[in-house]
Amino acid sequence: MQKLYIRPIGLAESPQSEHGGAVRLAGSLVYASRFALIVRKGGRVVSRTLVGASDMAQALGRLPDALAAEGEAQWSGLRMAHPPLQCGGRTLRLDQPQVMGILNVTPDSFSDGGKFLDDPAVALEHAHAMLEAGASVIDVGGESTRPGAAAVWEGDEVKRVVPVIERLAASGAAISIDSRRSSVIEAALAAGAHIVNDVSALRHDPRSLEIVARSGAPVLLMHAPGDAGDLHADGAYGDVVLDVFDWLAERRDAALAAGIAREKILLDPGIGFGKSLAENLALINALPLFHALGHPVLFGASRKRLIGALSNEAPAHQRLGGSLTLALRAFDAACQIVRVHDVAETVQALHVWRGLRDAALTDFSQMGD
Fold first, then answer.
1. Is the pTM of this model over 0.70?
2. Domain limits for position 246
3. Considering the domain boundaries, does residue 158 fall inside one?
4. Is 167 considered catalytic here?
5. Are 208 and 327 contained in the same domain?
6. What CA–CA distance (Å, rounded) separates 65 from 206?
7. Which of 3, 275, 339, 357 is catalytic?
8. pLDDT for 122-168, tens place per residue?
9. Domain end among 55, 78, 101
């Protein structure tokens, strides 16, 4: 069976810079003018055609009916403006990047494990500092998902996250729960969490699909190749970019079949989970493609191993420069949410990036005749 992929390969500062020959990518401040129309059969790419935005309708019309229908869906997804997410009293707009602050209430996170575990007051102080620095949402996790991390009993995970979530919710913060266990997700939502961030894409626990569907909460589905025992295992790919795209499409369809509303699904390519350095870099370079699935995209690479691998094995706490570089790449790729440890620095980078985007949109010297 043949499969089609529409990958944006030419990004533009503004539509006028391309004399109107660019489309707004996923309702963002990023514009795309050229695309690779890729056809794959049996895991092998059989054709790759370059198409301009103004020629896309004609190019799709030349495809066989089944591929043309998929192409129309992806073309619509690439241009889709996503509605905001309502998180209690807060509204998370998706027409510009939002920064998600990481709060690990764990003893063994690769970056800051143990700092916020024993004293909820210290965890809350850090969370409020991230909110004051410009974080739009706080992602609370009670289990480390780094390679080789020990499994956590779900009762302990609940005890770690619920007190923090309750206090954050009382302050009016937007909160996501980073968990793959249904009992933890259920307890976190009851405590006031608004978004479910499941690194197993609702595969780890059979009840999770039902609980999320019933709650009506937005859910982040992340790619990880491994099963319940080790999310990092079995990372074998023919083409990592297209394989992850197909995998996320399948998990999206499973969520829809379970009754989760389409507008409540967000996707994450899972940087660092069961992927080599080269595979991670390929995914980051291909980020705009994932908008073709028609859902908001979350990007999380803050302080991850790939930064150390490219910078003389710098330890996690010395990876700020690399983290900011990757965050800027995510902004340029129109990712709606960027998950980070270093909120203040990332928000400052976002403000400068936004200033450049706004300036490009008002630069009428680029207009054609």
1. yes
2. 85-357
3. yes
4. no
5. yes
6. 36
7. 339
8. 889 999 999 999 999 999 999 877 665 667 778 889 999 999 999 99
9. 78
